[in-house]
Amino acid sequence: MIWLTLGLMTLIIFISRYLFLEPKLPLKLNKSTLQFLSYAAPAVLTAIIAPLVFVKEHALHISIHNSYLVGAIIACLLAYFTRNTLLTVIVSMGVFFFIL
User: Fold this and answer.
1) What Rg do the C-alpha atoms of the chain give, in angstroms?
2) In DSSP terms, which residues pair with 59 in a beta bridge?
3) CA 86 to the chain's CA centroid
4) For range 37-63, the mean pLDDT
């Protein structure tokens, strides 16, 4: 029963992704829908990262001693000013591990 459920969930996920990724299918989205969907990735990443950065031991932890917060601030500033993903990841991880 578990394998059947996993197989069906895999099939559903694959089909839902395939419809948007296959260029031969005549599925075209309008400009406003594409603009709306462009916010999905940042929203999901923010929802994943925010609790890691701001919460420690089930309480809000905003201070200079929070290495996650300092690393995130450095990463945001580097990403904004340099637009270089590799530099942003390496430097912010270095700062995080140096402070940790």
Assistant:
1) 19
2) 56
3) 16
4) 91
Rounded to an integer, what is the distance from CA 52 to the centroid of its chain?
Answer: 12
Q: What are phi and psi for residue 47, nearest 5 degrees?
A: -65, -30
DSSP bridge pairs for 55: 60
pLDDT band, residue 25 (cuts 50/70/90): confident
Q: Which residues of 66-90 are buried (b: 16+ CB within 10 A; e: fewer)?
A: bebbbbbebbeebeeeeeeeeebee
Statement: residue 100 has pLDDT above 90: no
Q: What is the pTM of this model?
A: 0.64
Cα separation, 58 vs 35, in Å, equals 35
**With the C-alpha atoms ordered 72, 74, 75, 80, is the resulting torsion angle positive or negative?**
positive
CA separation for the pair 56, 36 (Å, rounded): 32
Q: What is the C-alpha to C-alpha distance for residues 12 and 79, in angstroms, rounded to an integer?
A: 35
